[in-house]
Design a protein that fits this description.
Low-confidence stretches: none
Distance between the termini: 96 Å
Helix content: 10-25%
Strand content: 15-25%
Structural class: alpha+beta
Largest sheet: 5 strands, antiparallel
Shape: extended
Strand order of the largest sheet: 2-1-4-3-5
Mean pLDDT: 80
């Protein structure tokens, strides 16, 4: 789905278009919609749908009506109606699929929709680009002014309008914030019309983007558009440990992916007895300690002996509960205990690669050579020192018997 300028080069390294969210083909941006109706022709006599989808900064999309009947295609930069002035965006979708998207977003296709003024001229694009370059340094200064007023809020992002007449400050806060003085400081500092807009922590993560703990891009910044509420009950149904560090995403709230498999777990738990049920046996009462949903197993332990667990199948638990309703008690849980075949489990999880040790790639430690023991002095051991060896009085170098080289040659002859 990437455009030609974003594709990899011959050497394998990604080239990157470096358009910073203004890619012309709009095929490498987040929340991109594939127009699967592009190759289909309309029936005879039917006029094409006159609304288009326009994208702004950080994936914000809105719908506008093409009242001037201009020929627009995906990637065109247009000037659209705003309050006040005009805004500049990129066309991301045209045709009949826009009607489907409008119904999905809850917008009436036949109702009042803002209109498109014109295709953006070079002057419009220059003003828009200059305004986009001012956003990052302005965000740093805006945070400094908010900290100076001791306001418990965070300026997460700034978005300029296309004509550079207004700037929208997106912020997050836990409680209600009185930012009347802050707006006055912003207006005097930046000399522009200010609009404050509060967003949730999930929306902030969607605007900024990032990489999740799964190693992929955040769902909220790539394809997820609706944020359903997530509570700890979803983690309990899936038998997950209630660890806030593992269950929380980058937004600080519970991960949206906890809802993805919740319906499957809920369907599987319909056939399970309640975890608070007690089994009455002649040996004593037993309570449920653990549940394996997909293996349909339940672990029970006698009251007063919680260290010993007994594994039972769901069908056997239902039989015991049916007998208890009739006023009958089974002898013990050991008669119904389910034992897994350990041999099969070992065969299933055998290491096929032979990589048994995690330290197999570590360098072997160097063995320290034993140090040579120094000879003990004879004085310490009260022994007589050995006699020193006689010095060799022989000269190391033999004397030269020849005074010059000619004498040596005559001697050899």
């Amino acid at each position: 789905m990437a455009c030609n300028s974003c594709s990899t080069s011959t050497g394998g390294a990604p080239k990157g278009c470096k358009n910073n969210g203004t890619c012309g083909t709009d095929s490498c941006n987040k929340l991109t919609v594939f127009d699967w109706l592009a190759n289909m022709s309309l029936p005879g006599g039917q006029a094409p749908f006159d609304c288009v989808e326009v994208r702004f900064k950080n994936g914000r999309k809105e719908f506008f009506r093409n009242t001037e009947k201009m020929t627009l295609s995906i990637g065109d930069i247009v000037a659209v109606e705003a309050s006040p002035g005009h805004d500049v965006g990129i066309v991301t979708l045209t045709g009949e699929l826009v009607k489907v998207q409008m119904k999905k977003k809850g917008v009436n296709p036949e109702g009042e929709v803002l209109k498109i003024y014109r295709k953006a001229s070079q002057k419009d694009i220059d003003i828009w680009s200059e305004a986009r370059d001012r956003e990052e340094p302005m965000k740093v200064r805006a945070r400094e002014l908010a900290i100076a007023l001791n306001l418990e809020m965070k300026i997460s992002d700034i978005e300029f309008q296309g004509d550079a007449s207004k700037a929208t400050f997106y912020y997050t806060a836990n409680d209600r914030v009185d930012f009347r003085q802050l707006i006055k400081d912003y207006a005097s500092e930046f000399k522009i019309r200010i609009e404050m807009k509060q967003v949730g922590f999930r929306q902030e993560a969607a605007r900024l983007g990032g990489i999740g703990s799964c190693g992929r891009e955040l769902c909220c910044s790539t394809w997820l558009t609706d944020f359903r509420s997530v509570n700890t009950a979803a983690a309990r149904y899936q038998q997950l440990s209630l660890n806030p560090q593992k269950l929380a995403g980058q937004c600080g709230k519970l991960k949206c992916c906890l809802n993805y498999e919740l319906d499957t777990y809920m369907d599987a738990l319909k056939d399970f007895p309640d975890m608070e049920t007690k089994l009455h046996t002649e040996k004593g009462e037993a309570i449920c300690q653990k549940v394996d949903i997909f293996k349909e197993l339940m672990w029970f332990a006698y009251i007063g002996n919680n260290a010993v667990w007994h594994v039972l199948k769901v069908n056997e638990v239902k039989e015991i509960l049916a007998l208890n309703k009739q006023g009958k008690k089974v002898a013990s849980l050991e008669d119904f205990a389910f034992e897994e075949d350990k041999g099969e489990v070992e065969k299933t999880f055998q290491n096929a690669m032979g990589q048994d040790s995690l330290t197999r790639f570590d360098q072997p430690k160097k063995k320290n050579k034993p140090k040579k023991k120094k000879p003990k002095l004879a004085v310490e051991n009260n022994e007589t020192a050995p006699a020193p060896k006689p010095e060799n009085n022989k000269p190391k170098n033999k004397p030269n018997r020849f005074k010059n080289k000619n004498d040596k040659k005559d001697f050899k002859k």
